[in-house]
Write a structure and sequence with these properties.
The chain has a single domain, classed as TIM Barrel (Alpha-Beta Barrel). Helix content is about 35%, strand content about 20%. It is built from six helices and nine strands, in the order E-E-E-H-E-H-E-H-E-H-E-H-E-H-E. The strands form two sheets. It has a seven-stranded parallel sheet with strand order 3-4-5-6-7-8-9. Strands 1-2 form a two-stranded antiparallel sheet. It is globular. The protein binds NADP nicotinamide-adenine-dinucleotide phosphate. NADP nicotinamide-adenine-dinucleotide phosphate binds next to loops.
Length: about 190
Amino acid sequence: MTTQPMIKLADGNIMPQLSLGVWQATHDQTVAAVSDALHIGYRAIDTAAIYKNEAGVGEALQASTLPRDQLFITTKLWNTDQSDPQKALEESLQKLRLDFVDLYLIHWPVPDQDTYVDAWRGLLRLQEQGLVKSIGVSNFHPHHLQRLKAETGVFPVINQVELHPLFQQRQLQAWNATHQIQTESWSPLA
Ligand SMILES: NC(=O)c1ccc[n+]([C@@H]2O[C@H](COP(=O)([O-])OP(=O)(O)OC[C@H]3O[C@@H](n4cnc5c(N)ncnc54)[C@H](OP(=O)(O)O)[C@@H]3O)[C@@H](O)[C@H]2O)c1
């Protein structure tokens, strides 16, 4: 039984405060790390389609005896898939061996591509279908977030950004907080 703090998101869902991230891990490293992490009490895992290790997460999850409702699995929509989030998520779910993910993030806004608002509409539809519980973004600035709200009426519940003692992003953290957007740190050890 884990006793780590839980974070309440604006959509009412809760997530463990601490996740294991698997960026740069190979398939075999991911299977081993996720299995060990679950064994010692982690319940949240953070992967992404671009990490090419969702299948490793899926293998470790399948081997685990933990009930699904005790796990919190995040994956992310890669930039080149912003035009078809449904297809991208279905591929991720297949690799993860899951019926739904707890959190799906748009990985980067990629403003030059100008598809992130449509991608956000796609994530809203995925949430309606029950394929994702919570939806959010990563590496978004306030003006990107404001555009999502202006054009869809819905803010993300999470903005995952680079955040650590050497890069604290205090203004962004405050802006997110004002809009009930949880700030999640990537590269927390810098
Ligand atoms: N959304 C995004 O765009 C994005 C971008 C980057 C990361 N992320 C997520 O954030 C997660 C964590 O980020 P991260 O891997 O970049 O950085 P991190 O967790 O801040 O740091 C990892 C580094 O810390 C070192 N380290 C880890 N444990 C240590 C220990 N016990 N003692 C000393 N050094 C230790 C490792 O060094 P050595 O390599 O030397 O062992 C490694 O290079 C990723 O796995 C991913 O899930 C998201």
